[in-house]
Amino acid sequence: MPNRCVSALNSARRTAVLDDGSELPFDLFMGVPKHRVPRVVEASGLTEKGWVAVHPRTLETRCAGVYAIGDVANMGTPKAGSFAEGAARAVASSLIAALGGGGVSEAYTGTGACYLEFGGGRVGRVDIDFASGPSPTGAFQQPTAVLRGEKAHYSSTRRLRWFGA
Predict the structure, then answer these.
(1) Are 105 and 116 members of one domain?
(2) How many domains are there within the chain?
(3) pLDDT in tens, 86-145
(4) Which residues on neighbouring strands pair with residue 126, listed in sequence order?
(5) Helix (H) or strand (E) holding 10
(6) What is the mean pLDDT of the chain?
(7) pTM of the full structure
(8) CA–CA dist 64, 95 (Å, integer)
(9) What is the pLDDT of residue 131?
(10) Are residues 116 and 72 part of one domain?
(11) Same domain for 79 and 68?
């Protein structure tokens, strides 16, 4: 089935109304909202084709000294935290170098991982590389209990580093 947008849900009939008016029955509905930049970002004039265009390695926009990362940047598609974390590291190193703080700018690698919950104590993982080749590549690791532990460890290290908790 091609990607379709759900325009309405009828929970009494357990059907999703699709953008072409057709209906799709469901037992359990799990949806992801259509991803887009916030209207305030669109109004800024920085967007092209719905996203803020950035240099793939520096994440600088067409406006000198202005960078975009995460959910608004056109670099990559998934907007998982691991990609934003790598992008933030690259931008921070560029800013420190530009402001005379020393060091060398670190290029954004465009790589990251996304953990996926499957239930039953199992977690899968997708490793994605947006920048090394002519098109993005990804590798899926089947869901296991071992990856559940890996995800828990990954999450705890981020909470400690970001929030001290």
Answers:
(1) no
(2) 3
(3) 899 999 999 998 888 777 888 999 898 989 998 899 999 999 998 888 888 999 999 999
(4) 114, 140
(5) strand 6-10
(6) 87
(7) 0.71
(8) 12
(9) 84
(10) no
(11) yes
